[in-house]
Amino acid sequence: MLTTSVVMANTPNQTEVTQASNQNNIRVMTRPEIVGLWGMELPNNRKCVEYYNFKSNSDVVIKSGEEWSTGIYDYQPSNDQNVQLPALILQVKYDNNEVDCSGLKEDQSGEMSQYFVKWKSPSTINFCANDKGQQCFATLRRVLP
């Protein structure tokens, strides 16, 4: 009988049940497959790695040597990658204007770039100049999911 009394004393009223069920809603959110930390080794004597951190809220942080910049990106997947590759548009909002992995010191604030993403595997992508996957100039490898 003591157990029943405890259960009845702890039974929430209808309002609390409704609130509790609202707190337990499950939301499924998809994120672009490019989200995560990627690294690109530059072929120079310093073995410098340029990092791209694509966040799920469309922000991007880029770290290259002493330079770091922040911006926004838009990843546009393709329905058929055999016909057209996914597009990636990057806009740099802030650049600290320090020397990057290539040895250059250039303020890229305000610059906008468009690349086409050729997926070699789930952990390796190429940035290409056109949507057919030709003229690929950079290989990035996934560091963190």
Topology diagram in text:
Elements: H1 2-10, H2 14-23, E1 36-41, E2 49-54, E3 59-64, E4 67-76, E5 87-95, E6 112-121, E7 124-128, E8 136-144
How are the strands of the largest sheet arranged?
1-2-3-4-5-6-7-8
End-to-end C-alpha gap: 53 Å
Order of helices and strands: HHEEEEEEEE
CATH topology: Lipocalin
CATH architecture: Beta Barrel
Give the oligomeric state of the chains in this entry, treating copies of one chain as homo and distinct chains as hetero. Answer: single chain
Q: Share of helix among residues? A: 10-25%
Poorly predicted tracts of residues: 1-20
Structural class: mainly beta
Number of strands: 8
Characterize the biggest β-sheet: 8 strands, antiparallel, barrel
Shape: globular
Tell me the count of domains: 1
**Percentage of residues in DSSP E strands:** 35-45%
What Rg do the Cα atoms give? 23 Å
CATH domain class name: Mainly Beta
Q: What integer is the average pLDDT?
A: 84
Number of helices: 2
Q: Could you please describe the fold and organization of this structure?
A:
This protein is mainly beta and 145 residues long. The protein has one domain (31-144): Lipocalin. It has 2 helices and 8 strands. It has helices spanning 2-10, 14-23; strands at residues 36-41, 49-54, 59-64, 67-76, 87-95, 112-121, 124-128, 136-144. Strands 1-2-3-4-5-6-7-8 form an 8-stranded antiparallel β-barrel. A hairpin with a 7-residue loop joins strand 1 and strand 2.
Short characterization:
With 145 residues, the chain is mainly beta. It contains two helices and eight strands, in the order ααββββββββ. Strands 1-2-3-4-5-6-7-8 form an eight-stranded antiparallel β-barrel.
